[in-house]
């Protein structure tokens, strides 16, 4: 058991094991305080503290996930918590429920990872992508992208507007499908030249 405690304490992820029968924590790793701002003593003195720091907006989702434990024995979810200093954090939580063989007590284990920075950078990247897409779609240039099979994989709004086609009618179709038969030879020649001499 000491070796197990040592290994769990060395993890960056926080680990909490709660004896549901005795309403007491069996184990709380040091990473819990790093993520929540609450010490092991705080958690043990207030067994319901973890539930109290869950963001109120996420309480229903956490409750639903907890109910699923009785059926699956394991649940993963991402929600917000309010740390001791008032900071809002996103955590990824894995909950596992099992029975201790020696005491037959039900134990609920939380494995908690702080994903605040990951989600922040993901949101910032999405903002940049959304802004870039708005610029591309609002501009006057006709922009499109095709794969090696000459199939459309992207067209901007200007392209669809000027050609009177829906994006759904273009994506996945070959560019040659939209060439006029009288112009097909010349267009193909121009396309091949552009393909062989990019830029």
Describe the structure.
The chain is α+β, with helices and mostly antiparallel strands and 199 residues long. Helices cover 43% and strands 24% of the residues. It is built from nine helices and seven strands; from the N terminus they run αββααααβββαββααα. A hairpin with a 4-residue loop joins strand 1 and strand 2.
Summary?
The chain is an alpha+beta fold.
- Indicate the mean pLDDT: 82
Overall shape: it is elongated
In helices, the fraction of residues equals: 40-55%
Question: How many helix segments?
Answer: 9
Amount of beta strand: 15-25%
Distance between the termini: 65 Å
Largest beta-sheet characterization: 5 strands, antiparallel
């Amino acid at each position: 058991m000491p070796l197990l405690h040592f290994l769990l304490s060395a993890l960056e992820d926080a680990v909490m094991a709660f004896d549901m029968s005795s309403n007491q924590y069996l184990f709380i790793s040091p990473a819990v305080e790093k993520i929540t701002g609450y010490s092991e003593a705080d958690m043990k003195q207030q067994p319901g503290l973890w539930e109290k720091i869950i963001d109120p907006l996420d309480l229903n989702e956490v409750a639903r996930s907890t109910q699923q434990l009785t059926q699956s024995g394991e649940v993963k979810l991402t929600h917000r918590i309010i740390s001791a200093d008032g900071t809002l954090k996103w955590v990824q939580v894995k909950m596992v429920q099992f029975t201790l063989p020696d005491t037959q007590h039900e134990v609920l284990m939380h494995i908690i990872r702080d994903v605040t920075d990951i989600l922040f950078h993901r949101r910032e990247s999405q903002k940049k992508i959304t802004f870039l897409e708005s610029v591309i779609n609002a501009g006057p240039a006709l922009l499109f992208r095709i794969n090696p099979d000459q199939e459309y994989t992207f067209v901007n709004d200007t392209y669809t507007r000027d050609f009177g086609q829906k994006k759904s009618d273009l994506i996945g179709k070959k560019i040659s499908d939209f060439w006029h038969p009288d112009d097909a030879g010349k267009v193909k020649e121009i396309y091949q030249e552009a393909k062989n001499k990019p830029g």
